[in-house]
Amino acid sequence: MKTKDRIVAAALQLFNEQGEANVTTNHIAAHLGISPGNLYYHFRNKNDIIHRIFQQYAEHLRKSFTPVTGPASASPAVWFHYLDAIFYVMWEFRFFYANLNDILHRDPELHKKYLAVQRELAVNLQALLRELNAQQVLAIPDQEIEPLTQTLKMVVSFWVSYQSAQSLDPRISQAVLYEGVARVLLLLKPYFHPEKGAELAKLSEHYQALARTPSDPFHK
After folding, report:
1. Cα–Cα distance between 5 and 134 in angstroms, integer?
2. Which pTM value belongs to this model?
3. 218, part of any domain
């Protein structure tokens, strides 16, 4: 792995484990066993590293939430794909969600990138919901698709910070994030198409079971 990629991977690990505000470029360099000067050769400062991590985050959203179209979208395997992608983004980039407002407010350039990615995500999610309607997986009135999309995005975006505020321990476990996925399904439950209700109920039970499973907060 190239040094630049190692720096990004180490920063992401430390941000997630210790909180982004508690990690400096010196901490990252020490963790890798390289000099601060070597780190600065690749990145001007910590914000540069965060921008590179954000690129990974944006690429994951684009790749994972581009709607599958046609009959394949009615397959439970596709539903697992979308829901596991929600879990992955919350777990892999949990530092970002834990301190979202502060990170964006201190970096207007990153904030603009974030808003652009979120607009693109909203378009994809609305298309996804309409496709699931077309395949009779969901039955969402057309006028409710846009506000439902915003509500789903809100739950995912602030689940980590909300849970952190509910405990004196700032660490977030995988089980807590699986509960967030289960809440996404709970929001969709009123719209389950009658013919798919049993399958979707099993899906809900799967993620609820994962949410009840104790896990090491930093187990990957």
Report:
1. 42
2. 0.89
3. no
Q: Is-contact 18 31, C-beta < 8 A? A: no
- Full residue range of the structural domain in which residue 112 is found: 47-211
Radius of gyration for the chain, computed over Cα atoms and rounded to the nearest angstrom: 19
35 in the same domain as 73: no
Cite the DSSP H helix spans in 33-141: 36-42, 46-64, 76-92, 94-98, 100-105, 108-134
DSSP 138: B
Count of Cβ atoms closer than 10 Å to residue 74 Cβ? 19
Assess whether 20 and 105 both reside in one domain. no
The CATH number of residue 21's host domain is 1.10.10.60
**Same domain for 6 and 99?**
no
pLDDT tens per residue across all 220 residues of the chain: 899 999 999 999 999 999 999 999 999 999 999 999 999 999 999 999 999 999 999 999 999 998 888 888 888 888 889 999 999 999 999 999 999 999 999 999 999 999 999 999 999 999 999 999 999 999 999 999 999 999 999 999 999 999 988 888 878 999 999 999 999 999 999 999 888 878 888 888 999 999 988 755 444 4
Distance CA 128, CA 125 (A): 5
Classify residue 219: in a domain, yes or no: no
